[in-house]
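Quick one, T. Sequence first:
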Amino acid sequence: MSVRLARRMTAVSAAGQGVRALLLIGGLLLLAACSSLDAQNAPDTGAAQKPLALEDTLTPAQRKEHERLVASYGGSYDDPKLQALIQNTVTRLVAASERPDLRYRVTILNSPAVNAFALPNGSLYVTRGLLALANDTSELASVLSHEMAHVIANHAAIREDQMKQAVLVSRVISDVVNDSDLGALALERSRLSLASFSRAQELEADAIGVGISARAGFDPYGASRFLTDMGRQASLRSTDIGRSSTPDATDFLASHPATPERISIAIANAREYASPDKPGERDRDIYLAAIDGMVYGDDPKEGFIRGRRFFHPKLGFTFTAPEHFTLENTPQAVLGATPDGREALRLDAVRVTGDQSLAQYLSSGWIDGVEINSVESLVLNGFPAATAVARGDQWSFRMFAIRFGTDVYRMIFAARELTPEVDAAFREAADTFRRVSIEEAEKVKPLRVRVVSVGLTDNIDKLAARMDVPDKPLERFLIINGLDRADKLSYGQKVKIIGD
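Structure tokens:
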């Protein structure tokens, strides 16, 4: 939950944004999304030209889009040595690509999400979450070349034309037939066909990207290794937040190839350029040196999670979720769920006018099924608050509205069965919402990627035990290092652990 969110709060209407958000918790799957760019609009540059700062090359509209995008991912992450490595990698890839006349500039996004994408003006974006997952420069190159491939294949223009046609069809049906539901259905079916088309785009970009990476001298098998680690990360994440491994319509996998398919095709593509026993450069030590010390997970300035506790030193509050909950911090809200998916929570912020009491707000209709006789005013750790129960067909909700300074935070708990025991646990969790002292805030330090050398007596279990993560240290150690449980470590080998 970002500082920006609390400063730009607006009231959220009915179940459309309140209840559905709870039912879709965990919909952010950790696979790299691809927002393609149009090669025709990228600036033409020569190799001898001195790169300009990104902001100096943008139109006012482009600058606004860049700022909006960067803000939505927690801002940019400033690390000169890491930035230099990425830009050098991009330079090599561009020279080996089918369009060496194009120029790209890279922004590192201060987000733990695993993501990379590009914009029509030639701007590439990678999150530090993606950088933490990669294990060598060839894996990074596979991601960057994949995004460049979308430029070369001109996917953006194709997608834009298809979407315009889909919107036009829906409008014709809605206006002429006077049936908005039918129009919406037509648009949804068109979007599904677009999603199917994008699978072909992704595979095409994979093939082009592997070729670019191989011609630049990088190990072309970096793509298959990184896709494998992304799949493992996604599986771990899905169990963390109590979701089924089968993606729904909101997931990245719903409109992209399944990871096993992409891996097998990526390996086949790589074999066209190199044999597995004679791959290209990986530059593992150089890459690990560049990411050593990089912030890992949530940045404290955006709030962070430690086990069941959410802590936001900038906004000045903390709370602890009920037992067995796993939390996730997003720019819009703090989300949580139990492993079986039968209980969930959402913490977000809204603007409530001073002339409306919190009890009145809970009864105002922003969520359906409120039991009016359950509405009560109370005080939580010195803060005015109100609580109520709402019931739907499949879920019941225990809601809290807490006035914290000039802001109001909504803590919404959901349960398939709101038994007295479950309700009591929700109330106890709400009672942990409290102010953070200045002394507490000053002690907060982010977790970081730490690159260490394997010692004589070290093994996977010992190194995994040094991981400063809330749970599953062994699984997380294996994933971030691209290792299998049966792998043997060698003396002096560089590996990543997470620590402060």
